[in-house]
Design brief:
The complex is a heterodimer. Chain A is an all-alpha fold. Chain A has one domain. Helices cover about 70% and strands about 0% of the residues of chain A. In chain A, helix 16 packs antiparallel against helix 17. Chain A starts with a helix and ends with a strand. Chain B is about 20% helix and about 35% strand. Chain B folds into two domains: about 260 residues, no CATH class; about 170 residues, Immunoglobulin-like (Sandwich), CATH 2.60.40.740. In chain B, about 40% of the residues are buried. In chain B, helix 3 runs antiparallel to helix 5. Chain B is α+β, with helices and mostly antiparallel strands. Chain B contains twelve helices and 28 strands. The chains are: A mainly alpha, B alpha+beta. At the A-B interface, helix 4, helix 14, helix 15, helix 16 and helix 17 of A face strand 21, helix 12 and strand 28 of B. Chain B: This is Subunit of the glycosylphosphatidylinositol transamidase complex-like protein. Chain B: Keywords: Membrane, Signal, Transmembrane, Transmembrane helix. Chain B: It holds the Pfam family Gpi16. Chain A: It comes from Coemansia spiralis. Chain A: It holds the Pfam family PIG-U.
Chain lengths: ~450, ~575
């Protein structure tokens, strides 16, 4: 622990000067209104989830041609490690007794094969139903995350008044969080192309919820599943470990708990891989983990890797693989440590880093990041570049399909067009991440030094 | 050992003497003497040469040169080999690399099945094709032997066969099974030995055929281009053609009952060309030497048989001189000229009828013909469509093989087979057997092999779709925007003597006298090639891309690092 952080710790403990004592009647009234709120909130959330599912199912039923002809070929939505077409090929190979990993097409988890094996023989509608259900679950978990944060905040306000004087807005209501996720065009598109990233999102969200609820073992298992599905969630072990460590008070116990969480995670992940290596041989390992790490398929996506590794000189290929992957993975521990008192926020930052820097990113990754953001609504007014990053992201998202069409379909543009769009998109994400992090730090300053709110602030 | 060394010394002496005699133009009697010695020596090699001339319906002429050497090897397992007429380079390459069977062909131009009828060769796919059966297990020594074989042949034929590696080698299991190998299988099964051989099929669709490949090929002929039918091989005419297929094939045939180890090695060299006499200002009447612009000097002295055969159309062709005999070949009347006995120096063709239009060729059309093309639009995905037409009045069992390079990622679950009858009815077909090998990136091509019963008088369509891979900028050929040539699909069917409804293929008719199995014959049809244009990166951009991407990455690193290491603090004002 650095001396500054210790100072911060000490400062947080005394009661806020503005939080005046409340009388008993006010508290009971507030409790009653909260109960009413919870009831109406519950029904609102149910409606949102229902509408979200209805919209997705309607799109599946009404526009099957649009989805199969235009959306499913969209490289911004499905990547070699998440594409449904490749999953279907894997299922087909399995059904014909060919190892799905003995080839260059299938790179997804055997868990997905197990899950969809039954649906392979059923009409497509059931497969669609699974995807819609998984996405609705993600939205539900996000809403629950928001709800638990809201309850914490409400308790705090009732006890000590608002953290920052004059701050009225609570974090987004759970139904709003679910709505912002479900009606985000990016997540809608991700489900419509049946990208398997949805299941990875589900595991991440479940891990975060379990972590916050103090179910350490469940959190570890879900993180291991998420890591197994798409590798990069391995970074989330750090915030999950912090979440479970936060339960114990003594420093020695905390360290022990962190070590235990990491050990449990490694054990579960190792066991999973051992089972699948035993089942499918080492081919499984090269086709999934190695494939993700070494970026063997250079199909364009919205990330930084593909064009770089198409154009890089062969001698430097290995060096840059290491540099690129380390840039993404190395920040797991520092970021979690920096925001160690807010593990959920640290996890959100890491989800953002994954979305910007993973080897096969898609719009779906950004959808989860954007889905987690409204949980921290209080940071919005601290964000200085919100307009800039929103614009950058919108340009990146809007231009990518246009430039793809110009390059691939019409041939009137070239690869540089699409590359430029992905650069803007990644830059937008980086701006957003930085902005979010600074907003959190700036708000911390306001919490601890309320008296200096009107004065200029610098970074030192 | 002693006996054999004596034998070889004697042979070398004899051969050098013969060559000396030949080059110094000794008298006829001398030649006849040495030649008769060759022929009379028992258990020795035999050489036959044959030229088949077939006037085609559209006025063009098919010339099919075939040279065969048969070498009865004493024991299949014996380590001693003597080469007299059999080309030593091929023999040694085959021996060194454990090759049981070898077919190599170089083809240029498409064989037009629908106008020219069935082809005289089994390899009509454009480019270089090599099929070899090599001793050993799949992942054992046979892989390195295959590499050795392709590299050695590359040197022999001045071709880029050394570019055949794992990336364009397939190991089909159904397509290339011949009667011989079936018998081998039986034999192997009987003595339970693990002696297996692996068939590999390599294809270079972009290989051009030219004189540099023809010259080493001609050198392998016992009389080269100096006498015999080989004298007609004029590269200027052979490469001024509509279709050209040149190749060698080395096949063992087993004599006697199953289980005997006596093998005969059959070595065949062939060239099939389709020439248009009009190109050479020859119209209605021309001679063979006019067509080839070379003279015929009589038969090759070491040949046991030297013939020119002319497939006579029903009417409209007069051939001079009078043929020695006539025979029937694949349902056609054939005039046979024996160059040795008749002492023929030229053959004159006189066409009394103008070349008929193509329509009359309907009866000549082969029973099964096939075409393949790509569909889809845009640079990121597409589909392959193969059409197989069955003109027979009964269903035909065919085997379909399509090998596609890894950068066309085939989705086997999109395979769809439909048969359309003449009156437009569509029926879904299910293959009796499917063998699908998925591709490995930069490692192995994907191959679909399926056996299928094609209904009578139908057009069967096979479709499957693929995604195009994105290659590193160094993996693109110099003219990247032209695209990649993709090798043909191969359709195989068994020609059985029992089936009267199946028109006999010209290849089978030519093959029959040399085959053990006179009843069945395997016919292969190669479809057209197609061009797959893959999306290209900007080749001038590497430095820019490296700079831009690294800038964004550095920006990320800098900002997050900033976030992690620096704290907010209240600015201390001076007047405070």
């Amino acid at each position: 622990m650095t001396p500054e952080s210790e100072k911060l710790n000490q400062q947080e403990s005394p009661e806020m000067p503005c939080a005046g004592p409340k009388n008993k009647t006010a508290i009971t009234a507030a409790k009653a209104s909260t109960q009413n709120d919870t009831q109406s909130e519950g029904s609102r959330l149910a409606w949102v989830l229902l509408m979200g599912c209805a919209v997705r199912l309607c799109a599946f039923v009404l526009f099957p041609d649009l989805i199969s002809h235009y959306l499913s070929g969209c490289v911004e939505l499905s990547t070699p490690v998440t594409s449904y077409k490749r999953l279907a090929e894997g299922l087909h190979l399995c059904a014909h007794d060919i190892s799905p990993f003995d080839g260059g097409v299938f790179h997804q988890s055997p868990l997905l094969l197990l899950l969809f094996k039954a649906f392979y023989y059923l009409p497509e509608f059931f497969t669609n139903l699974v995807y819609v259900g998984a996405d609705a679950l993600v939205a539900l978990i996000l809403a629950k995350l928001a709800a638990s944060k809201r309850i914490q905040q409400q308790q705090r306000i009732q006890q000590r008044g608002p953290a920052v004087p004059g701050e009225i807005a609570l974090s987004c209501s759970p139904s709003m969080v679910a709505m912002l996720y479900l009606f985000n065009p990016l997540s809608l598109g991700t489900v419509l192309v049946r990208s398997t990233i949805v299941f990875s999102h589900l595991a991440i969200a479940a891990a975060l919820l379990a972590g916050l609820d103090g179910l350490a073992n469940q959190a570890v298992v879900w993180t291991a599943v998420a890591t197994h599905l798409s590798f990069y969630p391995v970074m989330l072990v750090a915030p999950i470990a912090l979440m479970s460590a936060a339960r114990s008070t003594a420093t020695g116990n905390q360290l022990k708990s962190i070590a235990l969480t990491v050990a449990k995670f490694l054990f579960v992940l190792g066991a999973m891989h051992a089972v699948f290596v035993a089942l499918y041989g080492m081919q499984y390992f090269t086709a999934t983990f190695d494939f993700t790490l070494r970026v063997a398929d250079l199909q364009p996506n919205v990330g930084l890797f593909w064009y770089f590794f198409i154009e890089i000189f062969d001698e430097f290929r290995l060096f840059f693989f290491v540099v690129f992957q380390l840039t993404a993975l190395a920040f797991a521990v520092p970021v979690s440590w920096r925001f160690r008192r807010k593990p959920l926020f640290a996890a959100t930052m890491l989800v953002g880093i994954i979305s910007a820097l993973k080897s096969y990113p898609a719009w779906g990754d950004l959808a989860l990041f954007l889905g987690l953001l409204p949980i921290f609504e209080e940071l919005l007014k601290y964000m200085q570049y919100a307009f800039l990053s929103a614009n950058l992201l919108m340009y990146g998202i809007g231009l990518a399909p246009v430039f793809w069409h110009l390059w691939i379909e019409q041939g009137s543009g070239n690869a540089n067009f699409f590359y430029a769009a992905t650069l803007v998109y990644v830059f937008g994400q980086i701006t957003l991440l930085f902005d979010l992090g600074s907003a959190m730090l700036r708000r911390e300053l306001d919490i601890h030094h309320p008296e200096t709110r009107a004065r200029p602030v610098i970074q030192e | 050992m002693l006996v054999s060394s004596q034998q070889s010394i004697f042979t070398v002496l004899l051969a050098s003497f013969y060559l000396l005699a030949d080059s110094m133009s000794f008298g006829e009697a001398m030649r006849a003497d040495s030649v008769s010695h060759y022929r009379s020596s028992s258990n020795s090699e035999t050489f036959t040469e044959d030229l088949l001339v077939k006037p085609l319906h559209d006025g063009k002429v098919l010339l099919h040169f075939e040279f065969r050497v048969q070498q009865p090897s004493a024991e299949a397992s014996s380590s001693q080999h003597h080469y007299h007429l059999f080309p030593r380079q091929i023999g040694e390459i085959a021996k060194q690399n454990g090759v049981d069977e070898l077919h190599l062909s170089f083809t240029q131009g498409g064989w037009r099945q629908d106008t020219w009828g069935s082809p005289p060769v089994n390899s009509q796919g454009v480019g270089a094709e090599i099929i070899a059966r090599i001793n050993g297990t799949e992942d054992g020594s046979s892989g390195s032997k295959w590499k050795g074989l392709t590299n050695a042949l590359s040197g022999v034929f001045c071709a880029s066969l050394n570019f055949i590696d794992e990336g364009n080698t397939a190991m089909p299991q159904l397509t290339f099974t011949t009667q011989n190998t079936k018998r081998d299988g039986v034999r192997a099964g009987q003595d339970n030995s693990a002696a297996t051989n692996i068939l590999r099929h390599g294809y270079l669709p972009r290989e051009n055929v030219c004189t540099e490949n023809l010259t080493p090929w001609i050198k392998q002929l016992p009389c080269q281009a100096k006498s015999g039918i080989g004298a007609l091989l004029n590269p200027y005419r052979l490469f001024n053609m509509h279709f050209h297929s040149m190749g060698i094939s080395l096949e063992p045939s087993i004599e006697g009952e199953i289980g005997s180890n006596r093998k005969t090695l059959n070595y065949k060299q062939y060239i099939s060309v389709v020439l248009d006499p009009h190109t050479f200002n020859l119209d209605k009447s021309w001679t063979l030497s006019e067509l080839m612009d070379r003279d015929l000097y009589g038969a090759c002295q070491v040949s046991t048989k030297s013939t020119v055969r002319v497939i006579m159309p029903d009417s409209g062709l007069k051939v001079l001189p009078k043929p020695a005999t006539t025979m029937r070949l694949a349902g056609d009347q054939v005039s046979v000229f024996d160059i040795q006995k008749q002492n023929i120096s030229d053959i004159e063709f006189e066409f009394t009828k103008v070349a008929a239009n193509v329509q009359t060729a309907a009866t000549q059309q082969p029973t099964i013909s096939a075409h393949r093309y790509v569909n889809g639009h845009g640079g990121s995905s597409g589909g392959v469509v193969t059409e197989i037409i069955n003109r027979s009045s009964q269903p035909m069992d065919i085997i379909f093989l399509d090998t596609l390079p890894w950068y066309l990622r085939v989705y086997s679950h999109t395979l769809d087979i439909e048969a359309t009858t003449a009156d437009g009815q569509v029926k879904k077909l299910t293959p009796t057997k499917i063998l699908f090998t998925p591709a490995i990136d930069r490692g192995r091509p994907s191959s679909i092999e399926l056996s299928l019963s094609v209904p009578e008088n139908t057009r069967t369509t096979l479709r499957y779709s693929f995604d195009k891979g994105f290659l590193k900028y160094t993996e693109h050929p110099p003219d990247a925007n032209r695209g990649f040539n993709i090798g043909p699909a191969i359709i195989t069917y068994q020609q059985s003597a029992d089936r009267v409804d199946v028109k006999e293929s010209l290849f089978c008719a030519l093959q029959r006298p040399y085959s053990n199995n006179t009843k069945n014959c395997t016919v292969r049809i190669h479809t057209e090639l197609f061009l797959a244009s893959l999306p290209t990166p900007d080749f001038s951009m590497p430095y820019n891309v490296i700079t831009f991407t690294c800038t964004v990455l550095a920006l990320f690193f800098g900002r997050i690092f900033n976030l992690l290491t620096r704290d907010f603090a209240v600015l201390k004002e001076d007047n405070d």
